[in-house]
Amino acid sequence: MGFLFESFQHAISLILSFDREVFDTVWTSLYTSTVAILLAAAVGVPFGTFLGLGRFPGKRAALTLLNTLMALPTVVVGLVLFGLFSRQGPLGSWGFLFTPMAMIAGQMVLATPIVANYTVAAVAGADPRIMTTALTLGASRLRAMRQLLVETRFGIVAAIVAGFGRVIAEVGVAMMLGGNIRGYTRTMTTAIALETSKGEFAFGLALGIVLLAVALVVNLFLNLLQQR
Amino acid sequence: MKRFRILLAAVLASLLFCGVATAAEHLRLATTTSTENSGLLAVLLPPFEKANDCKVDVIAVGTGKAIKLGETGDVDVILVHARAREEKFVAEGYGVNRRDVMYNDFVILGPAEDPAGIKGLADGAEALKKIAAAQATFVSRGDDSGTHTKEKSLWKKVDITPEGQWYLEAGRGMGEVITMATERRGYTLADRGTFIAYKSKTDLQVLTEGDKALFNPYGVIPVNPKKHPHVKIDLAEAFVAYLTGAEGQSIIANYRKNGEPLFFLYK
């Protein structure tokens, strides 16, 4: 018990002293996850809206597929994109491997199905009269859709929060595509993995606490948005 | 909605700014977990980065994976420890101008009670033979690293194929394997540098050491630009020159952990 307690104390003092390395990894985590989730939202929300509202053959199959993609193992995404981004792979000339860009791409692949799926649920659960009312009031189809998204913003924001939670907490993609490079692609999760491997329990724990704190702050912020 | 848009714009602008701010040249170095975990790179790299106005991106993996990353051209230079495989790497045209950097040695670690009775034995392969005979727990890297390569060559020497409940293939880095062996009260083969760096975190002891077969040399090899034209060969050559030059060599020689040197220079 003393071991755990001492580690916890060390963790707190690390955070309070504003350790440069801790700050760097927190920043890398936030940066890649934020860009990834914005991109995922740009793709996932329209796609989810379309899927939720549309009536077309194969919709059930598409929804099932989307559900399956939600459970994509991060190491599989890491592996496939590693093959794509490696110099011997088709996109090798881009030089993406072991850069934050590669991590963002991987995280976007992970988050998009989640955002899309929650969006489907949000628009499918919305009052069906919103669209028709807007349309009869003379709104264009695009305008009506925008109105729908405004009305369902709770669900949409929840979709984005869920996606963000997934990408900031995952370690497979960040490790395989980012390479855990100090001060460049080292995120909170890969740093925790590394510190544990080095036997530096306290530093790992410190980062774990920061990770939780970041999740809390992000959720508080999004709560604020939802209440408007 | 307006507040949201302003916020979004601010986030995007700050992200863009960060993208521009990290424009320095990057040299990609694939190396073994032992150089990274021992803490050597943290003191060795900054002077080079400063002098050449670049960043060295360290990808710390096993020697096998590091060589693979060199073959595919995903890194510019490798710093590894498996002499035979390094020579093959150069012979096949993947690398140029291999240079010796430093050396230390491998040791066999085990619990103080030493159930296989290998304490004081000088011959590494003989020690493994005794461990196998006693069916005492042995944790192997199992990850195709330089240490794993060495371990396999030792098993081969005494003609044993290690298998069974007592032989654990971890598939993890050196530090993790030392931790595992500590928890399982088992034996393991480790490089001395990582062991010294871990001394305060393990109660395993050095039981076998000093064998010629346990010699552990490190070499640095730039990736061949003829094979991979995008390789930053000038910077890679500068890095080799730094490691083998006066400044790099003196940093390596003076690097100590818990008062002990971790790596030694060729005289």
From TrEMBL, chain A:
UniProt KW keywords = Membrane, Transmembrane, Transmembrane helix, Transport
Please name the GO terms of the biological process aspect recorded for this protein, alphabetically: transmembrane transport
Q: Which SUPFAM superfamilies match?
A: MetI-like (SSF161098)
Q: What is its main location?
A: membrane
- Please give the InterPro entries that the UniProt record associates with this protein: ABC_perm_TupB-like, MetI-like, MetI-like_sf
Which domain of life, per UniProt?
Bacteria
The membrane-spanning stretches of this chain are 30-53, 65-85, 154-181, 201-222
Q: Where is the ABC transmembrane type-1 domain positioned along the sequence?
A: 26-222
Pfam families reported in the protein's UniProt record:
BPD_transp_1
Q: Where in the cell is the protein located?
A: Cell membrane
In its keyword annotation, does this UniProt entry include Transport?
yes
Q: Among the entry's GO cellular component annotations, what is one?
A: plasma membrane
Please give, as recorded in its UniProt entry, the membrane topology of this protein: Multi-pass membrane protein
For this chain, the family text in UniProt reads: Belongs to the binding-protein-dependent transport system permease family.
| Record's protein name | ABC-type tungstate transport system, periplasmic component
Organism, as annotated? Desulfuromonas soudanensis
